[in-house]
Hints:
Blueprint: H1 23-37, E1 54-55, E2 61-62, E3 98-103, H2 108-120, E4 125-129, H3 140-143, E5 154-157, H4 162-175, E6 185-189, H5 191-198, H6 204-214, E7 221-227, H7 229-233, H8 238-258, H9 263-267, E8 270-276, H10 280-301, E9 310-314, H11 327-341, E10 345-347, H12 360-376, H13 390-412, H14 416-422, H15 424-441, H16 482-498, E11 503-508, H17 512-528, E12 532-534, H18 542-549, E13 553-557, H19 560-576, E14 581-585, E15 597-599, H20 605-615
Parallel strand pairs: 3-4, 3-10, 4-5, 5-6, 6-7, 7-8, 8-9, 9-10, 11-12, 11-13, 13-14, 14-15
Antiparallel strand pairs: 1-2
Helix pairs in contact: 6-8, 8-10, 8-13, 10-11, 10-13, 11-12, 16-20
Catalytic activity: (R)-methylmalonyl-CoA = succinyl-CoA
Pfam families: MM_CoA_mutase
Cofactor: adenosylcob(III)alamin
Amino acid sequence: MTQAGTTGPEELTLAAEFDAPTRADWQQLVAGVLKKSGALPEGFTGDPESLLTSRTYDGIEIQPLYTAEDEAPPAGFPGLSPFVRGAKPEGAVGTGWDVRVLHAHPDPAVTNKAVLADLEHGANSVWLRVGGDALPVDKLADALNEVYADLAPVVLEAGEQYEAAANALLEVLAEKNVPDSEVVGTIGADPITLRARTGKAHETAKAAALAARLAPKYPKLRTIVVDGLPYHEAGGSDAQELGAAIAAGVAYLRALTEAGLSVDEAAAQLEFRFAATADQFLTIAKLRAARRIWSRVAEVAGAAPHGMKQHAVTSTAMLTQRDPWVNMLRTTVACFAAGVGGADAVTVLPFDAAIGQPDVFSRRIARNTQAILLEESKLSGVIDPAGGSWYVENLTDALANAAWREFTELERQGGIEAALESGALGERLAATWAERSKRLATRKDPITGVSEFPDLAEKPVERPPLPSTVDGGGLPKVRYAQEFESLRDRSDAHLAATGERPKVFLATLGPLASHTARAMFTSNLLQAGGIEPVNPGAVEDPVAAFRESGATVACLCGSDKSYAAQANDVAAGLREAGAKTVLLAGKPAESYRGISGYAYTGCDALAVLTSTLETLGVK
């Protein structure tokens, strides 16, 4: 701005009329909010930020506020080493990321119809599961009928049959007159993942020999997939997934160079696959950290600087079978994070993928999720949109260091194959899953539609089973919702056998305002286990109302004041009226008599629900 009669600009200071806020001012405001909510302990004199600080499963401390004072190592520039900000200088601007769709139907005609529909409506590449009980290898040509494979790259996942699948794919491409020099795609050979999935040894030398044979003739074709999904799907942390994937990448580099390829040629044969979850910031940081770590590995190996080729897949572990429509929201957040994190290709799994074969509608929603983020939200219109965020840059650095420790530990054990053979890697993943399971059981890691806000009236979605290319026997494959959904399955079986749901009577104490919050909390918790809450509201005689309900288990719901005045007498009356168990919505107290269990925020909800179902005779 320039004042009249002057020649120089006048400095414009935004919000100049306000005092500059300090961190102490913010902390004081935070303390006030925490005090009003009851989260600030009586007489607390410490830093209120500590009450809002959390930790990831890798022990990374997440602060409630990041400022310019929270410095992180320089992230460099997009397209330049260490490639934290992306593998290409231009990012995905102009082209967007590769929208990759997964198909696994064993019928080639069904697969072909679905593939063509996806490619006609926004997909860029095709990921095919072949072999095993998925699409037969000898039917690959039928599945790719009328597919312009020179425009739509094909990525294979063929389990042990990767060499036969490679030959079949290359034969199809030759018949389509695609020049060898223009063949693009990924063969998907991954013997280390086969070992992780099956528990059986598979030679990396065989896959390396295939790569060495194909590389000179097909310079744009990648042969090896370095898959982090088995470690994520076994319940592992982000750093464990990264560390295992980097260790597998190093093992492949060794095998490829032993097969005669140079380090640069070997690195060009690899495509990395990672899980994208609804924790958007950790997903963004994971993809950025992966590129940084791999850049360092390539540097040490003597390769020229080049970015990691990344394929992000929305997590199967986070998907639910109950209320699967919520999965649309989870996969949208995960896809957003994968795009912001700089993934080269993204696969959004359909919302019913945890149930079985996706239908036409779920495929369309999954495809259009990416279309909206790319075309309507313009997510690819900015190079590294997370760059410069104090939180993201610090999280990226912390996760990169944690993953490097995981990687070096695997190398110390003799490499990832040795760690899989000895069971050491499986034990580390199992320990993380045990920790995660505790948080899931206590609903500290809530699952919307399952452990929180379930819908007992929903009709379960049914789908044909999803085929696989490998048999089990290796690392477990878990879903975060599986234990709660198992309880719901028990309830459904009980309903089918008896004609009614297992139920618990809510014995409300005191006036409506005094019991509503705890009654609502208890209702939500019970339904997470498939138990119907019977809530009569405010009644003068809860014992009489219990007798009329026909229930055999009751839960007292009221205020601490009403408990002090009535809990013991009402609990005794409920037991005399036939209650096998009397629960109380609130934290345990020595003054309560006749109470068998407690339901409160942070309790082991799975344990409460399981014992209640057993008391109700639900097998």
